[in-house]
Amino acid sequence: MSIEIKKSIKPVNYFDAISLLETRLKRIFENNEKELIWTLEHNEIFTAGTTYKENEIIDKSIKILETNRGGKITYHGPGQLICYFVLDLRKKKDIRKFITIIEKTIIQTLEYYKIVTFPDKDNIGIWYKNNNEIKKIAAIGIRVSKWIAYHGFAININTDLENYKKIIPCGISDKGVTNLKNIIDQDYSNLSDILIKNFISNLKI
Asked: Is 83 a catalytic residue?
């Protein structure tokens, strides 16, 4: 499996990132480029997927960037690990299985840190339960074009959770959002390496 691994240290401009993904998609479709897995961080930005509604914006003063990914409104910012990808599904053509691979990858990665999480068939993303309170720890938003999947998912490490009060995150009002530091305050500096290793391993299955 020939996948380019790209890890950005400095925050990447959202528009630049999406432009790179869309260019890579075109080149993969033409069989002129490797697939891509890319970990990075964005500066503070609120993005909306194709199914968001205006009433999901609580703080009307914030700027919302509409995107072509699936899903609703979410927040990106410092302390959040984003994993973008451009992956060719033309041989398997199974989007549900692909989403399951993403879910499994996140869950396995957090298990390494002794954090137990789970998916929810009704609410996409990865969730953490504590004292009967369920909160989202990772958001997933993908788009598939010509059977090539792109966009990605985000894991909150020490994200400023106050920003989620400005929106209804992912359109889900009855569950909260958390980050890894709130669950267990430990060193997560190698999280991206473990995540990439698990992702590649699961894609081979």
From this structure: no
Cα–Cα distance, 150 to 165 (Å, whole number):
28
**Domains along the chain with CATH numbers:** 3-203 (3.30.930.10)
What is the per-residue pLDDT across 12-23, written as a single tens digit (0 to 9) for each? 999 999 999 999
pTM: 0.94
**Residue 201 φ then ψ, to 5°:** -60, -45
Q: Which of 170, 183, 191, 195 is catalytic?
A: 170
The C-alpha angle with vertex 106 and arms to 100 and 110, in degrees rounded to 5, equals: 145
Distances 183 to 130, 140, 158 between C-alpha atoms, Å: 9, 20, 10
- Report phi then psi at 112, rounded to 5: -55, -30
pLDDT tens readout for residues 114-172: 999 999 988 889 999 999 899 999 999 899 999 999 999 999 999 999 999 999 988 88
- Burial letters for 1-34: b for 16+ Cβ neighbours within 10 Å, e otherwise? eebeeeeeeeebebeebbebbeebbeebbeeebe
Q: Give the pLDDT score at 1.
A: 57
Please tell me whether residue 114 adopts helix, strand or coil conformation.
coil
Count CB atoms within 10 A of the CB of residue 129.
12
